[in-house]
Every structure is written in structure tokens, then in C-alpha cells.
Amino acid sequence: MVEVGDQAGDFSIPDHNGNTVRLSAFPGKRVLLSFHPLAWTRICAGQMKALEANREAFEALGAVALGISVDSVPCKHAWAENLGIHKTRLLADFWPHGAVAQIYGVFDSQRGYSRRANIVVDEVGRVIFVAEYPATTVPDMQDVLDALRAQERHTEEVLEA
């Protein structure tokens, strides 16, 4: 698994609407990569709904959240509609199978899907937060928000010095 301070690997995969998403396409933003095992499961649904529910809080902190799993674009599209997710982009790490999850060290090769994890990448492509969660737990987005706030305070202090 990547660690805080590592350079984040760039990637290019489709979202649930078939639009290509690159990590490097978010200049000046911090990006939350929220990995989840599979669509259409209760815990994963809760995780993606939490991204959507906290979207404005993420935006206020200069961040964008992306949900990522190994499911296909049509699967992610139907699931987003079913969940009522309209603003958060759900990414299909379908082919090559789990390539993005492998880049970040969260792919479970025995099960064929990613482990549940949140990874935050800062504006210059550096990993600033990493947390892995039990498969049976919806991640608490407060941890991510706290990390974003702490990094924002640190940046302000550096600029003032």
C-alpha cells in the first residue's frame, strides 16, 4: 500500500458515464481516491453515499472525491442511478482489471477486487492520507475531512513563514 509522502501514480480510467478521468486532470485540487470492493453491496453503497453527502465539504476544502472499484462502466452507471449519486464520479477500474488499485497497493489478487481504503493526494501529486478499513465497515469521512483541514492549515503556515 502507498504511504504518506509517496508520489501518487497517475491513471486514466472511465467514470460511470464513460468519461475518461485522469488523476493529473485536477490541477490545484486535492483528490480523495475512495476504493471499495464491489458495487451493489450494502457497505460499498454506504461508502459511496458518504462521498456524495460530503461533496460540498470536500469542495470547500479544495478537494474532489472519486469512488473506485473493479466494476464495469455499465454496472457503475446503473448503481450510481440506483443510489441517487449525481455529482460524485464513480470510476470503473475494470480493465486492465484493478490496475489503479494495484498502483496504490490496495488490490486483493486472491479475491479479484480492491480492499476498502481512502487515499488523499495533494495538489502536487503527493499522498497525504492513507487509511484502510475492514470490509464490513463504512469508512468515516470525518477522518478524511480532518486530514484535509490539517493539510490546509499546514500549507497556510508554510505560506505565512
UniProtKB/TrEMBL annotation:
Active site: C44 (cysteine sulfenic acid (-soh) intermediate)
Organism ancestry: Archaea, Methanobacteriati, Methanobacteriota, Stenosarchaea group, Methanomicrobia
Coiled-coil annotated residue ranges, if any: none
SUPFAM superfamilies: Thioredoxin-like
Record protein name field: Alkyl hydroperoxide reductase/ Thiol specific antioxidant/ Mal allergen
InterPro entries, A to Z: AhpC/TSA, Peroxiredoxin_AhpC-typ, Thioredoxin-like_sf, Thioredoxin_domain, Tpx_Peroxidase_subfamily
Taxonomic source organism: Methanoculleus marisnigri (strain ATCC 35101 / DSM 1498 / JR1)
One Gene Ontology molecular-function label: antioxidant activity
Gene3D superfamilies reported in the protein's UniProt record: Glutaredoxin (3.40.30.10)
